[in-house]
Automatic annotation (TrEMBL):
Segments forming domain GH3 C-terminal: 390-496
Protein name: GH3 auxin-responsive promoter
Pfam families: GH3 (PF03321), GH3_C (PF23572), GH3_M (PF23571)
InterPro entries: GH3, GH3_C, GH3_M
Residue ranges of domain GH3 middle in the record: 297-362
Length: 511
């Protein structure tokens, strides 16, 4: 038995026992108070009169009444541009030390989201919370001596106008605590390599030199990395290279869509722990083995609000109507979808992060990601959210014993009438023909969503499926210079984007 591993496990167990019980609603009230008091003398705080909000009897209500919703482009156009002109104290005291470049999944180019030193500290604190939760998973002592493969974006950040820029995973990895560096792989030199393929090649070459016990990263890119390592060493599973691999910390997207294809790369099951690290902050992490839901991190510099996820509140561009109602944590209900708004120590205020969530346990503040507002397909009243799409694709996987880790779709006009055209990414040789898949997909969606069933009886005239190799989706990301890191494939496209996608697929097949 490892002496050092025993010490680490003992410290985690002790921390778990002495950490006071969480009171999410109270923590949220205190967080909002702290945010408003800290930012009251900024340009934003003066404009929206934070002083009077703080003096009101109900701070949460006054805050919601005085400050409007903001999506990225509006926030950048009205406020953050002033940082780039050299101004200080715009939406948060001082100037941001970093800017997180988002993956640009749904936009034409990456967003530049301020990341303050306070947010870096918040992310570190959340990471420690996540590590502390391992006490609940009954991991063996020797696990705490193994190395951790963190597969994110490059840590070679770009210096610009007095700050550093990069994806949030790269910013986080460049700020890991000194005591963690001995466990961290692929190590600083390889992590700085900007080219995704080169970085993964170096990981494959060095893989057998490391004793990896845990993986952390977005599922699609983690799968690609594992496949490369397996191929390079000419073995059957990742456990043939890393026999002590026991944990995978997923993040960025719901893991359900990737579960079958991910498990196919393993020799035996491992512990899957979900996390929710976005470009805007570390939002939630799984803390109990008996659920896959994640607990909102409610006392760590992020204040949450929730808009009921209904079609009438969502604009065509994925933003929300200014008249949409908002509720606080003490008002949410279980199993209902909500659009997430956040206010943070980086100077984001009532900010539309773009994700939808549902509460599985209100008292514990445990949630699951259910989709994205811009991936809500409602062109002809079908009201399809990403979780309904994932459920339907998972049903196909189970019914035909195949793997479909990637998909995208759009509402398109065929002979003047609307159809849903799905592209399913699968390398399974036993996958049925496209007509059979389309019929099964259509049936699964009708069973799961009554609005979809109504749409199919009226304006939505049919479903079309095109099968492509999973690698096509990865090449699309590469084509758009968005390979690796925090990049997530867009599940829903508009007609213009979908036409470009179809042209890309045709050219790829020809070549």
């Amino acid at each position: 038995m490892s002496f050092f591993g025993s010490i680490i496990k003992g410290l985690i167990d002790i921390k778990d026992k002495v950490t006071p019980e969480s009171h999410p609603v109270e923590e949220q009230q205190e967080t909002l108070q702290h945010l408003l008091e800290t930012a009251k003398d900024t340009a934003f705080g003066k404009h929206y009169d934070f002083e009077s909000i703080l003096a009101s009897e109900n701070i949460e209500k006054a805050f919601a009444e005085k400050v409007p919703y903001f999506e990225y482009h509006q926030m950048n156009r009205e406020w953050w541009y002033r940082y780039h002109e050299g101004e200080r104290d715009v939406t948060w005291p001082g100037i941001p030390s970093y800017y997180a470049l988002s993956s640009g999944t749904t936009g034409k180019k990456s967003k530049r989201i301020p990341v303050t030193d306070e947010m870096v500290d918040s992310i570190k604190k959340a990471g420690i919370t996540q590590v502390g939760a391992l006490a609940n998973f009954d991991m063996p002592v020797d696990f705490f001596e193994k190395e951790i493969m963190m597969l994110g974006s490059s840590t070679d950040l770009t210096e610009k106008d007095g700050h550093l820029e990069g994806e949030i995973s790269g910013i986080s990895a460049s700020n890991i605590p000194f005591w963690f560096k001995g466990y961290y792989k692929p190590g600083e030199d390889i992590a700085k390599i900007d080219d995704w393929d080169e970085r993964v090649q170096r990981i494959a070459e060095n893989a057998k030199n490391w004793d990896i016990g845990a993986l952390s990263g977005i599922p699609s890119w983690m799968e690609l990395m594992m496949k490369k390592v397996i191929e390079y060493h000419n073995v059957d599973t990742i456990h043939d290279v890393w026999p002590n691999l026991q944990v995978y910390t997923s993040g960025g997207v719901a893991f359900d869509a990737y579960e079958k294809s991910f498990n196919a790369l393993l020799a035996h099951p491992i512990t899957i722990i979900d996390t929710y690290l976005a470009s805007e902050g570390f939002i939630a992490c799984q803390q109990r083995p008996e659920t896959t839901a994640m607990k909102l991190i409610t006392g760590n510099g992020i204040y949450f609000e929730f808009v009921p996820f209904k079609a009438e509140y969502i604009n065509e561009d994925g933003s929300i109507d200014n008249n949409a109602p908002v509720i606080t944590l003490d008002e949410v209900e279980p199993e209902k979808d909500y659009i997430l708004l956040i206010s943070t120590v980086s100077g984001l205020w009532r900010y539309l992060i773009g994700d939808t969530i549902k509460f599985t346990d209100v008292e514990r503040a445990e949630i699951k990601i259910t989709g994205r507002t811009k991936f809500f397909l409602n062109v002809v009243g079908s009201q399809l959210s990403v979780n309904k799409m994932n459920d339907a694709v998972n049903a196909l996987e189970e019914k035909y014993d195949i793997e479909i880790p990637e998909f995208t779709l759009a509402a398109v006009r065929i002979d003047g009438e609307f159809h849903h055209h799905w592209y399913l990414g699968t390398n399974s040789v036993n996958a049925p023909d496209e007509t059979t898949l389309a019929e099964a997909l259509d049936s699964a969606l009708k069973d799961a969503n009554k609005n979809y069933g109504v749409a199919r009886s009226k304006a939505l005239k049919g479903v079309k499926v095109t099968k492509v190799n999973t690698e096509v989706f990865h090449e699309w990301s590469n084509h758009n210079k968005k390979k690796g890191g925090q990049v997530k494939m867009e599940r829903v496209m508009n007609e213009e984007k979908f036409a470009k996608w179809e042209d890309f697929v045709k050219q790829l097949v020809k070549s």
